[in-house]
Specification:
binds molybdenum atom, 24 strands, five-stranded mixed β-sheet, Immunoglobulin-like, binds the ligand Nc1nc2c(c(=O)[nH]1)N[C@H]1C(S)=C(S)[C@@H](COP(=O)(O)O)O[C@H]1N2, globular
Length: 438
């Protein structure tokens, strides 16, 4: 028997095994759903290619006929050159005249799994990325404490550490797409969002050492960048779960994410997670800095502006299919992310008919507190126009609102913060997927 015949034999054998398996009756619900919808759709793999084409595909590959690239003495591994299109991108909706106060977005539709690779974590800087030598950097704890502290990076790294998975979202995420479509892709509409495993020292340990006075009710944290970005944070939250973070996803922070040290405030708007952290001062009142008066405030219907809207409330978005994709008829898995700054994701409902009917999606483990949670729903698209959206419910019972719901309690004027409305994607009969807001 020559090579070709052997290959054909293997292909035939695996085909009949597949047939036998698909006629088994004890399949789980999900498997049989997949089997039925794949059968209805004529399968996914090289539809109708047949044994000859399959056998050709199994001929000895060119890559098997030569030596591979050897391991260099040392290197930092990079993604395959074929993945070069996976990049974070600056907004093309709001084009800045300068790029010091700017942002870039995470390609959520290309993120696999739960964590965002370090090179794809969105960026938001008020004055560019400073270059900070960790050997020169120090964190000062002062104000209403018994013993002010000055901690070098090596001091901080002598503390025991903790590693936690959390999402981080900019309160401006989605600000261009409140009322009418502006963004073409989910990267641009929702990409001021990431999830990582953050490593560092609980703020409470350091405050304990400094001897925080009982009268201290607020702390202000300041960055060492050109914007001198600072925010006031209540003591309660700082003692609860705030972290002094020096690493993400197993390595030291990237310069753009706060190297060598950032504050990390789980579940709260990204702008309180001060990067390039240089000091924390304790006092009795918030400081009412520019970022708490002129910025990061929300207009209310009575003409007043709400301050200190810290929590990122439950939100979700479908990432597949999403804007810019072309849907193929037959089996498709609807996929997306849900997250809540108030706790865990309890459920995600998905609609394919613009909200007339909803189906509960499957949540992928692990489902963690204040963390991105992936949801999935198998779907067969028959070719009719569809409007797809998701709606998250969190462990407090809070249900992700529609933009119409939000309008009842907030004044929606131009670019507002904290937009967590249900977000639709439109699927046209030709499979084109576009932004369906408004
Ligand atoms: N020092 C400093 N900290 C900062 C900022 C900044 O400009 N300077 N931007 C804030 C904002 S608005 C957000 S959303 C997050 C973004 O963090 P990232 O760039 O690591 O994604 O950092 C926050 N911390
Ligand atoms: Mo932000």
């Amino acid at each position: 028997m020559d090579q070709q015949d052997k290959v054909k034999q293997v292909v035939e054998a695996s085909k009949s095994e597949l047939q036998a398996r698909s006629s088994m009756t004890h399949d789980s619900g999900r498997r049989s759903f997949l089997r039925n919808s794949l059968a209805a759709a004529g399968g996914i793999g090289a539809a109708g290619a047949g044994a000859t084409a399959a056998a050709e595909a199994l001929a000895v590959a060119d890559s098997s006929k030569k030596m591979g690239r050897p391991i260099p003495p040392e290197e930092y591994g990079m993604p395959s050159k074929y993945e070069a299109r996976v990049k974070r991108r600056r907004s093309d909706v709001l084009v800045n005249k300068q790029n010091f106060s700017d942002w870039s977005m995470t390609p959520l539709h290309q993120q696999q799994g739960m964590t965002t690779p370090n090179g794809l974590i969105y960026e938001r800087h008020h004055n560019g990325v400073p270059d900070i030598d960790p050997d020169q950097h120090a964190l000062v704890i002062h104000g209403m404490v018994r013993k002010p502290l000055k901690l070098s990076m090596s001091d901080l790294m002598r503390y025991p550490s903790v590693s936690k998975f959390y999402f981080m979202e900019c309160s401006g995420n989605g600000l261009t797409d409140w009322l009418k479509p502006a963004s073409k892709t989910v990267q641009q509409s929702h990409g001021l969002l990431c999830c990582a495993q953050w490593t560092g020292v609980p703020v409470s340990w350091v405050l304990d050492e400094a001897g925080l006075l009982p009268e201290a009710k607020w702390l202000v944290a300041e960055g060492a960048d050109g914007s001198g970005h600072l925010r006031s944070i209540p003591v309660e939250k700082m003692l609860d779960d705030a972290l002094l973070v020096y690493a993400s996803n197993g390595e030291m922070l990237r310069a753009e994410n706060g190297y060598p040290l950032r504050l990390f405030i789980p579940g709260w708007e990204g702008n309180v997670s001060i990067k390039w952290l240089r000091r924390i001062k304790a006092g009795t009142e918030p400081w009412h800095v520019r970022g708490e008066t002129a910025r990061y405030t929300d207009p209310m219907p009575d003409g007043m502006w709400r301050q200190f809207s810290f929590v990122m409330e439950a939100k979700s978005v479908v990432t597949k299919p999403s804007g810019g994709m072309n849907l193929q008829r037959g089996f498709n898995e609807i996929e997306g992310f849900a997250w809540s700054g108030s706790g865990r994701i309890k459920a995600v409902d998905v609609t394919v008919d613009g909200g007339k009917t909803w189906q509960e999606a499957r949540l992928e483990e692990p489902v963690l507190d204040k963390c991105l949670t992936r949801f999935r729903l198998p779907w067969t698209w028959q070719g009719a126009p569809a409007v797809i959206a998701s709606r998250a419910v969190d462990s407090t019972g809070y249900v992700q609102p529609t933009v119409e719901d939000i309008k009842k309690s907030r004044a929606i004027t131009g670019f507002v913060q904290h937009g967590n409305g249900v977000f639709p994607w439109k699927v046209a009969a030709n499979g084109e997927v576009t932004n369906g807001i408004g």
